[in-house]
Amino acid sequence: MLIDVQGVGYQVMVSTRTRAALPARGETASLLTELQVREDHWSLFGFIDRAERDWFRTLTTVQGVGGKVALAILSVLAPDQLARAILAQDKASLARADGVGPKLAARLATELKDKAAAHGMAPAAPTGTVISVPPAVADLVGPAEDAVSALVNLGYRRPEALGAVATAQRKLGDGAALGELIRAGLKEIAS
Q1: Could you tell me which residues come within 8 angstroms of residue 110 by beta carbon, excluding any fewer than 6 positions away?
Q2: Cα separation of 46 and 149, whole Å?
Q3: pLDDT tens across 58-117, in order?
Q4: What distance in Å separates the CA atoms of residue 132 and residue 174, rounded to the nearest whole number?
Q5: Neighbours of 184 (CB within 10 A)
Q6: Are residues 19 and 71 in the same domain?
Q7: What distance in Å separates the CA atoms of residue 185 and residue 110, rounded to the nearest whole number?
Q8: pTM for the structure as a whole
Q9: Contact 142, 134 (CB under 8 A)
């Protein structure tokens, strides 16, 4: 895309998701941007929202994923779908993007599993559903925050603890006591 900023044109690469969300030609739009500087080229990437930009940054930390491949992935999978695919180890969904073969899809699923939880998604429940949870324990309040901490201290991984407590809290309600959340969270992990 060519973006006009007070008379100066900038070539910005965007995902199909961002392109579809932008207004018609000539109308005002706002994009979050990321500049990648390489030895032979500067590339400007644009994003319609913070989630897409954050995933772009995360994807480009994986060896073999440059800016264009990251945009191809984000064109095929929205940020929440990408997190679900990574947590479910769905390599076929990841491989749908141009430039992503089976080996790269496997690397993405393996290397980004913990980072997907940090982007606000919990592991898939046994039924195949994915539970959206706050991105950090600091965002949880009261007993839920303490329950996640207790499960982590018991040796469970943070994404697993977040997903279990989120499910338990959904089932028990917001007024659930700490002990109830811990017991229900342990049951969720065991099931």
Answers
A1: none
A2: 37
A3: 999 999 899 999 999 999 998 888 988 888 888 998 999 999 999 999 999 989 988 876
A4: 16
A5: 20
A6: yes
A7: 25
A8: 0.60
A9: no
In terms of domains, do 109 and 16 share one? yes
Tokens of 114: 């913990």
Bridge pairing between strands 32-37 and 8-11 = unpaired
Positive or negative torsion for Cα 111, 117, 71, 34: negative
- DSSP codes, 126-191: TTS-EEE--SSGGGS-HHHHHHHHHHHHTT--HHHHHHHHHHHHHHH-TT--HHHHHHHHHHHHH-
| pLDDT tens track for 115-161 | 876 665 544 433 333 333 333 333 456 788 888 888 888 888 777 77
Number of domains making up the chain: 2
In a domain, 170, yes or no: yes
Amino acid at 110: T
Domain assignment of residue 38, given as a range: 2-119
